[in-house]
Amino acid sequence: MDRKLVGKVALVTGGASGIGRATAIEFARRGAAVVVADADSTGGKDTAAYIETHCDARATFVEVDVTDAESVEAMIRSTVERFGALDMAFNNAGVPDRAASLHVSTQENWDRVMSVNLKGVWHCMKAELDQMLAAGKGAIVNNASRSGLVGVPSDGVYGAAKHGVVGLTKAAAIEFAPRGIRVNAVCPGLVETALTRARFGEELAARAKLANPLGRMAQPEEIASTVVWLCSDAASFVVGVALPVDGGATAR
Ligand SMILES: NC(=O)c1ccc[n+]([C@@H]2O[C@H](COP(=O)([O-])OP(=O)(O)OC[C@H]3O[C@@H](n4cnc5c(N)ncnc54)[C@H](O)[C@@H]3O)[C@@H](O)[C@H]2O)c1
Question: Which residue lies with its CA nearest to atom 38 of ligand 1?
Answer without folding.
Answer: 14
